[in-house]
Design goal:
Elements: H1 9-30, H2 32-64, H3 67-75, H4 79-89, H5 97-110, E1 115-116, E2 125-126, H6 127-144, H7 152-169
Antiparallel strand pairs: 1-2
Helix pairs in contact: 1-2, 1-5, 2-5, 2-7, 5-7, 6-7
């Protein structure tokens, strides 16, 4: 959660922007200790969510591929295609996206109708709707491999874990 890819610098900017936008209010409501617990626990659970997804993909390929056919198919791929195939099956995780997504999920639990501006929409939308769009986009990106090397399921796992962890801390 403390290392990030220099290749995806814009990703770091968006993580920090999300932490700036949502983190202060969550820390004010819950306090520093609970904020830190949510942040780190969301990061760990997000990583587990991504690992479970990757393991499921690998299990599927192991159970369905004839390895002699796989070898023949791999021989036809160039190096870039092999790297893309590998990164779609196994994305090493680094960065704070899962933990920051947990803070965003916690914010959504407290303020589901709070309106925010997000790109590309030129008008404010409710946090709940923004998260539905973000989760759907992450899921589609993961399934269609639109951004190889990004741990999309860590984003989803972070949002879900932050949402449910804060439910434990704060009973209405």
């Amino acid at each position: 959660m403390f290392v990030h890819s220099k290749r995806l610098f814009l990703h770091i900017i968006f993580n920090m922007l999300a932490l700036f936008m949502f983190g202060g209010q969550i820390e004010t409501i819950l306090g520093v200790k609970k904020f830190i617990i949510i942040y780190f626990l969301s990061g760990v659970l997000a990583a587990l969510f991504q690992i479970i997804f990757n393991t499921g993909i690998l299990y599927y390929f192991v159970q369905t591929l004839d390895f002699s056919q796989a070898k023949k198919a791999l021989d036809y791929l160039n190096e870039e295609q092999k790297i893309n195939l590998y990164s779609s099956m196994y994305s090493p995780m680094m960065g704070a996206s899962g933990a920051v997504s947990g803070i965003v999920g916690a914010f959504a639990k407290f303020f589901p109708e709070h309106r925010i501006f997000i790109l590309p929409f030129p008008f404010p939308i409710a946090v709940r709707k923004a998260l539905i769009i973000f989760i759907s986009g992450s899921f589609i990106s993961a399934i269609l491999n639109l951004a190889p090397g990004v741990a999309h399921f860590a984003h989803i796992g972070g949002i879900l874990s932050g949402y449910f962890i804060v439910s434990f801390f704060y009973k209405k």
